[in-house]
């Protein structure tokens, strides 16, 4: 990934490029079938050598087919990439420099020695490692497949003698929808899972299209778009001017329009930000530019800040620091030490932060409850680390992560509560000197660093803090 971001260049005239230690070394592999036609036939075989030693950022890539179009065109490549300490072997499709499909998106095929792509005589397309170990296949043996072709739409297809499609990459969407591609209800795009615990999805549901953050076994929606009048969605389609939404009679029921006049090329779910974007190609600047982004305010992105961070009005991150004398800096705003059970009224309590909310919506929320009950629901739930209570609608949301927290104007009747070890808060009136809390807000933002050294200082600061900070703890709610 490192090599890619620093040194990937477009070499339309060459069929392969290798990235080694971040430097670009270009090889020209000689192919039996010549360079980059738009199809290959049964019996085709291509082998890439895998380095003996692991080197971070290594990418070895051989382009085997490309479309005959103006730049940026589509290319199919066999790649060996350094991923998580091993080498992954995959078949990929590129539009210009952008990876738009990858056979290893959901499950990497790790190899040593060699990475082989083969279209067998029986018409099965497969990836193999040493000792003929198969890591991925289309499973199209004996279906009359005669060739693999990359279509002008970027769809990678296996065709029979009558040009009927027997397998196509469009049926296995990853994190991109190309122009002309559709996606059915109850399917999804998934961001490349850099770590298995947190990833994003773009879901097509009957009543809406929505973005979700998945964290552990929990999921949270952070953006959604609903057709009016509760119309039922059957599929979506990426058209020239926007993302079109259709019902079961193939009638367009809604559309997300993009702004520029240039035709859209693809939709992607950002693997770092989790934002959904529609992109066009700028001929002047020779790169892809966003024509629409689902989320246009940084603080509305779930991971705008690290866990336990607060995204402030100036779009910077402040951290929620809770220090107890017992374990300095380790209470991690309630997420605790792995393995430690964080629940029970003797062990934990809820610390309330004013002037903040969460951008994460959660489906199984509790309604018509009191604030105390909401706090107790979180205290008793060992997986809960934070809760958001809305006093207007008496609604309680329970979270398994302290993520997506952002600053808002006060006075919306929202209370964001973070689970902390019991005794973190000082009881009103008599301050507990042994266990105290420092809430640092605005370290980055307001250049305000607040240090509390004892009960006396604590009192003085209490008075000032109300004026200085928009976000503070409420000590009156124990
Ligand atoms: C995110 O996606 C881009 C383009 O698809 C890819 O080049 C990059 O490696 C991905 N980043 C991560 C962290 O997976
Ligand atoms: C993956 O985990 C690391 C910490 O282990 C975190 O910093 C990073 O944001 C996570 N990536 C995603 C895409 O969630
Ligand atoms: C979110 O989690 C719930 C409960 O585990 C599950 O029923 C639902 O299908 C999930 N939603 C998505 C979009 O994955
Ligand atoms: C939408 O259509 C599906 C399948 O036809 C059906 O199961 C579902 O109940 C419908 N949803 C709504 C909200 O009408
Ligand atoms: C940002 O998004 C909101 C709704 O998501 C929209 O109303 C607003 O016009 C957008 N602003 C810009 C500058 O695109
Ligand atoms: C909410 O709770 C109150 C009393 O606890 C009850 O009278 C009322 O009917 C409830 N409202 C709903 C919508 O459940």
Automatic annotation (TrEMBL):
It comes from the Eukaryota. This is Uncharacterized protein. It comes from Pistacia atlantica.
